Amino acid sequence: MSREDRFIATCTSWSEFWEQTKKLSSKGEKGAVFERLTQLYLQTTPEYQSELEHVWTLREVPPADRTARGPYADHETRLSFAASAIDA
Q: Where are the domains of the chain?
């Protein structure tokens, strides 16, 4: 289990997650935890499960997809994750 997953698992509510996240020492840590929470939400919510085939954190985006997604794929301030839609 990753550090981000352990952090998320210790929180029992959104307010607890928010308060615990504020205590993290760096923006990088805060971003990684929020990015992982967002990824988990998109992967497990039925509305998104039926629409998205893959949901990657920025570090997980395959190189071919980074190139295909253009200039924002490597710019952390614009996108922190990427998703690919299920072909209909």
A: 3-85
